[in-house]
Amino acid sequence: MRYQSQRRSFLKYTLAASAALFAIGQTTAFADQAAEDFVQGILDEAEPILDAPTQQELLDGVENLVAQYVDMRRIGRFVLGQYARQMTDAQAEEYFPLFQQYATIIYQNTLSDYEGQRIVVTGSVDRSERDIIVNSKLANPEPGAAFANAVIHWRVYRDRDGNMSVVDAGADNVWLAIEQRSQFTSLIANNGGGAAGIDALIAEIRSRVNED
């Protein structure tokens, strides 16, 4: 599997992140049917991809889903935290395409863990009119299988026109974008903050993308 070091890095921080994250439990209440239908539609598209005959077809399929349904621009700004406002236009032009590549790899590696599985929506929680958490789980996991009891979360953003997109994903209250924000802002701060820190982050993301 490509980029195993990134997956190990994510798992390394899981326990620390769990203590800091807001808790969102599984629910069977249909708090937002439209958001649930949106996510289930994505999961239905994902089912044959997760059952693809080759690993490359799986990775390519996930990449297409991410490009279609995940708002990478919004996530890319979120993970910069307070430093998003300090980024120059030149840095933004370089950062956002690199971040999309990097985050897509994370989604590919994460969803590969559910290879051969079907995922179904179990409920949702409206955090606000525009911010919805949709919960899901494996439909028919084998007893004792990895992730058999995992609650898989999808954070959905609804814009003023009612259009929806995924802006984070996670499992058992550990979220990818929140973990990335912690790592990214720490890296920027440790490299002087501001423009210098953002340059260091861009260099780090480029090195991770080029590891393949």
UniProtKB/TrEMBL annotation:
It comes from the Bacteria. Transmembrane segments: none annotated. InterPro entries: MlaC/ttg2D, TAT_signal, Tgt2/MlaC_sf. Keywords: Signal. PROSITE patterns: TAT (PS51318). Residues 1-31 form the signal peptide. Pfam families: MlaC. PANTHER family: INTERMEMBRANE PHOSPHOLIPID TRANSPORT SYSTEM BINDING PROTEIN MLAC (PTHR36573). This is ABC transporter substrate-binding protein. The lineage of its organism: Bacteria, Pseudomonadati, Pseudomonadota, Alphaproteobacteria, Parvularculales.
